[in-house]
Amino acid sequence: MSSSDHTPLTLTEIIAGGWRQKWFAIPLFLVLAVACIAVLWLMPNRYTSEAQLLVRLGPNAVSMDPTTELSRTVSLQESRLHQVNSVMELINSREMIQRVAKRIGTDRILQPIGFLEKTQHWLTNLAPNRSIQAEGGYSAAEVAELIELGKACKKLERDLVADVGKKAYTIDVRYVSNSPYLAHDIVEAMLEEYPRYHANAHGSTGSLDFFKQELKSTLDSATDAQGELRDLKLKMGIVDLDSEKLALQEKLSQLERATNDTDSKLAEVDAEMSSLKTEIASLPERIVAEETTGIFKRSGDLVRQGLYELELKEKELSTNFNPDHPKMLSIREQLQQARLIANSEIGQSPQVRNVANPLRQQLDLLHRQAIAKRAGLQAKQKQLALQLASARAELVDLNVLGADLTRLNWDAEVAENTYLDTAKRLANARQIADLESFELSDVTIAQPATLQLTKTGPLRFYIGLVGFCIVGCLTFFAAALRDKNLVSSPTPIKKRRPIEVWTGPAPTAQTDHASIASAGRQIADQTSLHPELAKPSS
């Protein structure tokens, strides 16, 4: 028959079963209560020592190792949050725990305090322990010491608490122990050991020796670069490259100006020669040098004599002929022409002496001078071209030399800057080493370790109250489970059990009345436990 075919136990039935076993439950409860009280009495007192550290904005938060050169910009907010978390991790680190354990001593940390710890220690010592042997390069004594150190560190890690204050740059350190003096000494040892551990963690080991060697190397490099630059300048005869370039540029400017001036003068001479040629061609080769006046023309006298004769003849014909007569017309025409010729021949007849044109001769002389000047300018132009080409070639050589000098000068400057930077880093490394020797850190003690002689635990009242409740519940359920009526087979739900009646022989005087009463009580008990049995069946 499955469990679903049985009626589940109700709380009333469980309480009734426990109550029926009350004489078993009361002694059991008293025994367990006495045991609980004994455990509470034997529990050791717990004492707490507290301290507080303040993480300041110090050199460890924003400084870098002298061998690094990343950035001059530091996020202070992120740096401080990371710094606080780093300090807390360092406090909880195994190395820090080991330092405190070695300072306090493993014997004192592992020393049992109170009856329970002493009993546990005594029982542990009773168990057989295997002999400690040398292994891993350690002697047996060193292995035993490491085992004890591990136990002490495990106990310290269990009881030591370090946490960061809310929205603060402080770290609270607490240690709980059975001895107030041990708790105080452990927290105080933590505060004394942490500055040295913090300084060692942020130290730059080997930086000082490295920069000493690097300084000598960079000094040799800078000296060699300066010597090579000096030798090249002495070889080329250059004192200052910039002044040499400036002088050469000035020379090139003068040559270019002279070349331009020569070209301009040559063009001017060519224009002058062309103009002179044109003027010479326009002038006559000879001109009148001397003219004598006051001498009248002889031909005019002869013309006038013939004019007189024509006038006389015209008067003579006018007396004999009419004005329109052909002879009259002919003589008048001759007379008019004679008068014109006579008028033109009236005046003086000067005497002229022709000579070579002096202006043309002067222009020809200027033309010849211009030719000579042109030849001189052409020669000067060629010389200037040669000098300009030489100066430009010299400028090219100077530029090549300047590139070499620039490279050597750059190497010298880089070597010098490297030397100066290395010297600066060496000074920084020395300063850091000096600070490390004083074990300075950016973590200060805001609150020293407290010595609290007032216990902070255990809370015996609340623990006892909970213990009594648990003991009562366990006792009650143990009594209920002990009751035979609850642990017997439960009645099925679907099939009702018939009421048991007496089926024996009819009672007689000889019947045992005690047996009949016992059977009646059993039937009554079953009826009270299963009320459905009292109902008549259909």
Automatic annotation (TrEMBL):
- Primary subcellular site in the record, as a coarse category: membrane
Q: Where are the transmembrane segments?
A: 23-43, 461-481
Q: Name one Pfam family in it.
A: Wzz
Q: Name one GO cellular component term.
A: plasma membrane
Coiled-coil zones: none
Signal peptide from the UniProt entry: none
Give the Polysaccharide chain length determinant N-terminal domain ranges.
Answer: 10-102
What's a single GO MF annotation on this record? protein tyrosine kinase activity
The protein's name is: Chain length determinant protein
| Record organism | Stieleria marina
